[in-house]
Design brief:
Methane Monooxygenase Hydroxylase, Chain G, domain 1; two-stranded antiparallel ribbon; binds protoporphyrin IX containing FE; binds N'-Formylkynurenine; Trp_2_3_dOase; dioxygenase; metal ion binding; heme binding
């Protein structure tokens, strides 16, 4: 029996003296983490803590996504496709958590948000360095996004990332090394530019999608990239719809038109050929 009068017994082995060893709070640096929530409203608005924690938890997960996507590029460069796939699968699970998390912020009513929105000044998620870095890694390169980071250490980091290959570049280079006829126009592209659809890639992808068993790991990688894009778009949609129900059609604090600006992001695409190849798959008849 481990429960007495509704109380769980502490087992004899449970450690309680940490004077000479690592403990939970020290390992996780919780003093730093839990002292980093500083509401600005005066008197402090009850819901500002929700707003801050929603952003901070998102940024923590984005930190891990960034870490994993950098690893994915390294695995692809080292021809370790299976390892890259395993890592991308972790990214997908984080994306699911991030999309789900919008429901917490959706409990913030328009009236509650309006009570402290003005303290945000011109700050906005548009200035999220990690979000932009992830977009760059996935192929949505845009040098103008650097402007809001002028004079900060993140500017140099994003500038470097702008000139590095994307996850998709690394994947297609791996395919070329495996003997797939990836066109030079793709392999030699200026990686600092946003990805634009390369129709000349379609015949290569078609060979994969027409014989998935003969190209299984490549096929699986293509489908995983589609999953990642899908999840990214879902996050963007949930952001846009949460914004719409919270501020309607007000302008954004970052200076954009607001919802209209966020809606246009839904037309962006990371891996257009992986969508177009589906059009090429012939419907079979019996
Ligand atoms: C009530 C909550 C929120 C509102 C009203 C809101 C509103 C907006 C608006 C209007 C923009 C466009 C830029 C601007 O003019 O400010 C924007 C951009 C952005 N927000 Fe939010 N947001 C909210 C929550 C969040 C959260 C929780 C995150 C998570 C980190 C986030 C991340 C971003 C990002 C990354 C962008 C840039 C998007 C892009 O460039 O396409 N936002 N937000
Ligand atoms: N752009 C938002 C403000 C906002 O959401 C925000 C402000 C400061 C830090 C992060 C934010 N989140 C997303 O844009 C607005 O227009 O209300």
């Amino acid at each position: 029996m481990t429960i007495h009068d509704g109380v769980r017994d502490l087992e004899g082995g449970i450690k309680t003296d940490f004077s000479t060893s690592m403990d939970y709070g020290t390992y996780l640096d919780l003093d730093t983490l839990l002292s980093a929530q500083s509401p600005v409203s005066r008197p402090e608005h009850h819901d500002e803590l929700l707003f801050i924690i929603q952003h901070q938890t998102t940024e923590l997960w984005l930190k891990l996504v960034l870490h994993e996507l950098r690893a994915v590029r390294e695995y692809l460069d080292a021809d370790r496709l299976t390892r890259a796939l395993k890592t991308l699968s972790r990214v997908k699970h984080i994306q699911r958590t991030l999309a789900e998390q919008w429901s917490v912020l959706a409990t913030l009513t328009p009236a509650e948000y309006a009570e402290f929105r003005s303290v945000l000044g011109p700050s906005s998620g548009f200035q999220s360095y990690q979000y932009r870095a992830i977009e760059f890694l996935l192929g949505n390169k845009n040098a103008r996004m650097l402007e809001v980071f002028a004079g900060t250490p993140q500017h140099a980091e994003l500038e470097a990332l702008l000139h590095e290959p994307t996850v998709y570049d690394c994947f297609l280079r791996l395919l070329a090394r495996r003997g797939y006829p990836i066109p030079d126009s793709v392999l030699q592209r200026d990686v600092a530019e946003a990805w634009v659809e390369h129709p000349e890639l379609l015949p290569v992808l078609k060979t994969v999608y027409e014989d998935v068993d003969g190209h299984w790991d490549v096929y699986e990688a293509c489908e995983t990239l589609v999953d990642i894009e899908d999840a990214f778009q879902f996050w963007r949609f949930r952001h846009m719809s949460t914004v719409q129900r919270t501020i309607g059609f007000k302008r954004g604090t970052g200076g954009s038109s607001g919802v209209g600006f966020l809606k246009r992001a839904l037309d962006l695409t990371f891996f257009p050929e992986l969508i177009s190849v589906r059009t090429e798959i012939e419907d079979l008849r019996d």
